[in-house]
Design a protein that fits this description.
Strand content of chain B: 5-15%
Mean pLDDT of chain A: 88
Low-confidence stretches of chain A: none
Order of helices and strands of chain A: EEEHEEHEHHHEHEHEEHEEEHEH
Number of strands of chain A: 14
Strand order of the largest sheet of chain B: 2-1-3-4
Oligomer: heterodimer
Order of helices and strands of chain B: HHEHEHEEHHHHHHHHHHH
Radius of gyration of chain B: 31 Å
Low-confidence stretches of chain B: 398-407
Shape of chain B: elongated
Number of domains of chain B: 2
Strand content of chain A: 25-35%
Number of domains of chain A: 2
CATH architecture of the largest domain in chain A: 3-Layer(aba) Sandwich
Helix content of chain A: 25-40%
Structural class of chain A: alpha/beta
Mean pLDDT of chain B: 83
Shape of chain A: elongated
CATH topology of the largest domain in chain A: Rossmann fold
Distance between the termini of chain A: 23 Å
Largest sheet of chain A: 6 strands, mixed
Helix content of chain B: 55-70%
Structural class of chain B: alpha/beta
CATH class of the largest domain in chain A: Alpha Beta
């Protein structure tokens, strides 16, 4: 389990991190979202020890993280980088050996990672001969080749096509299922929503919301889509605390003041005629993210 | 995984990729060709034309062939005498280059026929011969026996009184010392700059961040320095090996005159000097992010090396035993270039060498700590040049301080 405990970091007058705390459990993919400059990269660099925090601590399984433990982290930094003139295989082998694998084991592990990432026939190509997407896959392979205990990936999906995103998502899911905590930052909120078990929204160096995607979207207003073909306008009028948000043909989006009214709405609708749809409307993560960024409070 | 093993992996990559790189193979081959070609040229073209000449003598001039041959031999030129009955037969042989020159006419008015130009030594010898013949003829006309005069002349010579005689062996030693120093100086400049450029490689490839999440900055720096150092050793050994084999095969020099001590002298000072300067070059290189900026940060370090070489040429080589040379040879940054000259000249007691080695090793330790610090503070900084003060991790200078130099 990875815990960040009240991390603070300043660059001159800029507060990059303010008392930021978060926890990532084994087997969990944690999505880290926030605007540019919100502090995602700074947080990840502090976890990796590339940067030092001014205050706060990073804990791994309850104890302060050491350099030896940090060497067990698979990392994709925001600034991508590999040796352009080395071949894919020798590159991966080098990273394996830097993490303590024997030459033969490093070679075997490198070859094993080419297949799931769709690079099986590129092992002997120089990195610079590969497309951007394939270089990114090699970058992930370099982070995985030594079987890390924890993955920290800064924008791993940036610039990838949907197929590459799927390939990478599958690999990350498999790694998490293997019991590893995985931390992913991304701007692509649809991917985060699909892939991540829990999400943290960071703004100006502070964690403003954390939880599962469902937990977070639950914090929005309570709204239901009701599809009742026979209903007349204002059919919900007799119900207390129910108001119309929008109407789309026979579909009505109603906002409820409290959860208790939910079954009353359904009963009223059924009394009118057959109900084709009765569904909780959750705001997309994107909407939630916009609300956070525009300063709308999210109640904890 | 311990530091040693990590540094070995890093140095191994550095060595492996560099030794296979086209630039290494091309430069090594070119340098072998250049040095090999020079040695072969020395041995076969220049030496041949000055050591042995085939000279034809027509009719009466055959009388002077023996004294000409003797005098040429004393000047280091062997003359093979070919007698000819007629000028025409000799001229034909000059034309088809069977002989180098044809001497005709009479002893007091000699004509030399050559294809292109007359060998200068042969010309001097023949001029002397003609003058002597003319002089002898005149003397005889005046009733003087030339033999008496010849004997009198032969018996006298200038007596040279040498106030400070030059020991030929010692000159040879200084030349060898200067050669060792020159090779050290050149390779420190070349490989030092390779280290500076190599340090930037990780920064410009942006790979440094993953590496620093895995290894300590000083481990990365040492791995790089050792890897490039091994490449340097391989290249120098190949080039020097080819040069020595060719030089001894063509009898230009005999290997024993170079001696084992010279080789040890060179190797020890190369290792020490390389470590010391590579650390400086690595620290300098880490302060910039782009290959174009290497030369600007490497300049101050190269400046120190050039200063050491100028001292070697102007102070140490002319007088290896002087106080100035002795003092300067103890300055750690100058030692690798100046000590080899003193050692080769045989003017330095062993304890002085030991002290200077200890001083250099101490400097390497200090520089390693300093370079490691600069490297750590600069290496993640991508973009403009890092100020030396920031790189050393010193607190910023108060505003208005005019001494706010950046490097």
């Amino acid at each position: 389990m990875l815990e960040l405990d009240h991390l603070s970091k300043r660059y001159g007058d800029l507060h990059a991190l303010r008392e930021l705390s978060l926890t990532v459990r084994e087997g969990e993919i944690f999505g880290f979202v926030g605007a540019n400059g919100a502090g995602k990269t700074t947080t990840m660099r502090v976890v990796l020890g590339v940067l030092e925090a001014d205050a706060g601590s990073v804990l791994w399984n309850g104890a302060g993280i050491t350099f030896a433990m940090r060497r067990r982290i698979g990392y994709i930094p925001e600034d991508r980088g590999l040796y352009p003139k080395m071949t894919v295989l020798s590159q991966l082998e080098y990273f394996g050996r830097l993490h303590g694998l024997r030459r033969q084991d490093a070679r075997t592990a490198s070859k094993q990672w080419l297949e799931p990432l769709g690079l099986a026939d590129r092992g002997d190509s120089q990195l610079q001969a590969l497309s951007h997407g394939n270089q990114q896959r090699v970058q992930l392979a370099a982070a995985l080749v030594f079987s890390p205990d924890l993955l920290v990936l800064d924008e791993p999906f940036a610039g990838l096509d949907p197929i590459a995103v799927d390939a990478m998502s599958d690999v990350l899911r498999a790694e998490a299922d293997d019991g590893k905590p995985v931390v992913v930052s991304s701007h692509q909120l649809d991917i985060v929503e699909r892939l991540c078990d829990r999400v943290g929204i960071i703004n100006h160096g502070q964690m403003v919301a954390t939880g599962t995607v469902t937990e977070l979207t639950d914090r929005g207003p309570l709204r239901f889509w009701v599809d009742v073909p026979g209903a007349a306008p204002g059919w919900y009028g007799g119900l207390p605390g129910v108001s119309l948000v929008e109407q789309d043909g026979t579909r009505w989006l109603l906002e409820l003041a409290d959860a208790a009214g939910e079954q009353a709405v359904l009963r009223t609708a059924l009394a009118i005629g057959p109900v084709h749809e009765f569904r909780r409307d959750r705001p997309a993560l994107t909407q939630l993210f916009r609300d956070v960024m525009s300063g709308k409070a999210i109640d904890e | 995984m311990n530091s040693q093993a990590l540094i070995r992996v890093i140095a191994g990559r550095e060595f492996g990729t560099r030794i296979r790189a086209r630039v290494f193979i091309v430069t090594t081959v070119l340098m072998v060709i250049a040095i090999g070609g020079y040695i072969l040229l020395q041995a076969y073209v220049f030496n041949k034309s000055t050591t042995a000449l085939d000279v034809g003598f027509v009719a009466t001039t055959q009388a002077i062939s023996a004294p000409v041959r003797a005098e040429a031999a004393s000047l280091g030129v062997t003359i093979n005498v070919h007698p000819y009955a007629s000028f025409a037969a000799g001229k034909a042989d000059v034309e088809d280059k069977t002989i180098d020159a044809l001497v005709s006419g009479v002893p007091t008015a000699t004509i030399v026929t050559v294809n292109e130009s007359l060998d200068p030594t042969l010309q001097t010898v023949l001029n002397d011969s003609v003058r002597e013949e003319v002089l002898n003829q005149m003397l005889q006309q005046h009733g003087v026996d030339p033999t008496t005069i010849d004997n009198a002349i032969a018996a006298t010579s200038v007596h040279v009184h040498e106030l400070s005689p030059i020991d030929a062996a010692r000159v040879q030693q200084i030349v060898i010392g200067l050669l060792v120093a020159g090779v050290l100086y050149t390779s420190l400049v070349i490989y030092g700059q390779l280290v500076a450029a190599g340090v930037i490689e990780e920064k410009s490839n942006r790979i440094v961040e993953i590496l620093l999440a895995t290894v300590r900055p000083w481990q990365l720096m040492m791995g790089k320095i050792i890897g490039i150092g091994l490449v340097a050793v391989v290249q120098v050994v190949i080039i020097a090996g080819v040069a020595l084999v060719l030089a001894s095969a063509t009898k230009l020099v005999s290997i024993p005159t170079l001696g084992v001590d010279v080789v040890i002298n060179g190797v020890v000072w190369f290792v020490l000097g390389y470590l010391m300067y590579a650390l400086l070059f690595a620290a300098a290189g880490s302060m910039v992010s782009r290959q174009e900026d290497v030369s600007s940060v490497a300049m101050p370090v190269i400046f120190v090396l050039v200063a050491a070489w100028i001292i070697a040429l102007t102070v140490a080589a002319p007088d290896p035993g002087s106080t100035a040379t002795t003092v300067l040879s103890f300055v750690p940054l100058f030692s690798p270039v100046i000590m080899p000259i003193r050692i080769a000249a045989g003017v330095v007691p062993l304890w002085e060498v030991a002290i200077s080695v200890v001083l250099v090793i101490g400097t390497i330790y200090v520089l390693a700590a300093m370079a490691g610090r600069i490297y750590r503070n600069s290496v993640l900084h991508i973009g403009g040049r890092v100020k030396l003060r920031d790189a050393l991790g010193l607190p910023p200078i108060e505003q208005g301080d005019t001494n706010n130099a950046t490097t």
